[in-house]
Amino acid sequence: MKKVILATGIAFALLSFTGIKGGEKATEITGSSVIPKEKRELLKKIVGRWITQTNIYARNGKPASKVIGSDIWQWSPDGNFTLHMAYGIHDTTGFGAMEITGYNPKTGDFDSYNFNPDGSFEMFTLTINGNTWIWNGKEVKTTGVMAEDGKTLTVKHEITENGKPYEEFMETVLRKGSDY
User: Which of 25, 74, 149, 154 is 20 to 30 A off residue 62, Cα-Cα?
Assistant: First the structure.
């Protein structure tokens, strides 16, 4: 329960600071950005609407499964963050999750806060190097490769538990339907 309350509090705080208010469409940048131009151009590639297909590998006694989903990345009104809303169907169960990403001037990378359907949250460092996107978290590492045309992002997810070596646990292909 404490995780849910903490995750909810962080989500509301981040949304408040970015100026997102209930139901408003946040597609235009209205303030000045703290993201350097070259970093903004990299992050801009993911902004848009995507259709997602994920294969989850069999592991820990659970069978392989599939997820079909829709992902939307958009700029916050001040242009300093991206908000990522993910919706999907895993087997027959629907779910949703949220990610907020902002530039970290101390590291030169991005900090990514992921809020999961179970009420938990994780913090990642997002490094974008050309067409390679790497989200590094405490137990999850995600590596994506963006196609040259910016319309396909192929992602491999790896997980570690109790200090064991990383192992792949799912693969996702995102196809961009439109820019946002």
Answer: 154
